[in-house]
Design brief:
Length: about 200
């Protein structure tokens, strides 16, 4: 069984290093969510009968809907020990970085450059009759604004990935009433409340 993602050392520098943040999220998703079918297949016990090559050519292929279902207890264990903790770690990282993005940034290395560019833009004379594009100027974004945009995008991606992974889990696992009726976020929230007690 796969292991849940471990939380990185959370610092503002980690969040502002967009490559490191994206790599962490990408690797965590690839290990657990992108390979959800393989992770679930690992929960099945191997076939009891030894391999018989004569059966391969004589039996028709089974349609995908007739795949062996995984016992609910194994699915619940996988979800509680691997899937939900990985989702929680990613949620914690995104929440921390969102708080960094909304906090003042006294260490912003581009603050002086932005102030100079803004001052030049205010002093510039614009004559749109001579140059219709002269009025166009877009200020450089602060790194907190860029981080906030990245976090918004990654939260949307996270929601899509969780929904897809949860649908695969519900499709492959036997339903004992614990997994079936819940959506991905409701199941995660239920796990959070149960793990706190």
């Amino acid at each position: 069984m796969s292991r849940p993602s471990s939380e990185p050392n959370l610092t503002p520098q980690f969040c502002f290093n967009q490559t490191a943040l994206r790599d962490f999220l990408r690797l965590s998703r690839a290990t657990i969510d992108d390979s959800i079918s393989q992770n679930l297949n690992a929960l099945l016990t191997p076939a009891r009968d030894p391999f018989d090559p004569t059966k391969v050519s004589s039996q028709p292929r089974n349609p995908p809907s007739s795949r062996r279902r995984i016992p609910a207890s194994r699915c619940q264990t996988f979800a509680n020990q691997v899937l939900f903790p990985s989702w929680q770690v990613r949620s914690d990282v995104l929440a921390y970085c969102a708080s960094v993005a909304t906090s003042p940034d006294p260490d912003d290395p581009d603050v002086l450059l932005r102030e100079v560019e803004n001052a030049k833009a205010r002093e510039r004379e614009v004559d749109e009759r001579l140059d219709p594009y002269s009025a166009r100027w877009s200020p450089r974004e602060a790194r907190t604004e860029m981080l906030a945009g990245l976090i918004r995008n990654e939260r949307m991606v996270e929601g899509i990935i969780r929904s897809r992974s949860w649908e695969v889990v519900k499709e492959r696992c036997e339903d004992d009433g614990k997994l079936g009726g819940l959506g991905a976020e409701e199941a995660l929230e239920k796990w959070r409340t149960q793990s706190k007690t």
